[in-house]
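It is time I had a proper look at our fold encoding. Can you supply me with one protein entry, sequence and fold together? It will help me judge whether the discrete encoding reads sensibly. Leave the record below and I will have a look:
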Amino acid sequence: MNPGDKREKKRTLPNGCEVGQLGKRDTMWPAFQTMVEKGEAAVPTLMEGLQDVDEQVRGVAAVALGEIGSAAREAVPQLIALLYEENRETRMAAALALMKIGPDAVEALQTCLQSDNRQARFWAAWALTMNDPSQTEAVNVLREAWADDRNDKYVHLAAAEAIFKAMRYQSSKR
């Protein structure tokens, strides 16, 4: 076994819940619920899930970390890395988790706005705006994504959602 490869040895919680269970239909939701209930104690196991070869495990682990919220702050760098993945669902799950982690993710998300990767930049902007609609730099990225015909319907929908949230925020300040 290669000691640097976390995927070869699965971390297990004291109740026997293992990160690989997040990728199986019959065990996904009980494992998810258990890990979210364990909260901060499950964060290392879920961070292992972010590195799993199965994209479903990565996505569900990201969502679970988001449900844990700010106690999952140590996962922010790995979640940011998932914004660069090819898999759309994984990117969306990572953005949702970063949004729910909240202020502890803001600095990393702001840095991601400078990325050359348009998908990573978009999902970082979405997470920032949904968390704090006063983020004007993020709103500009969202507007670009809205106007870009290369984006799929999910990006256009998410862009609209975040832009409208920012518009409501701006009109409430008047």
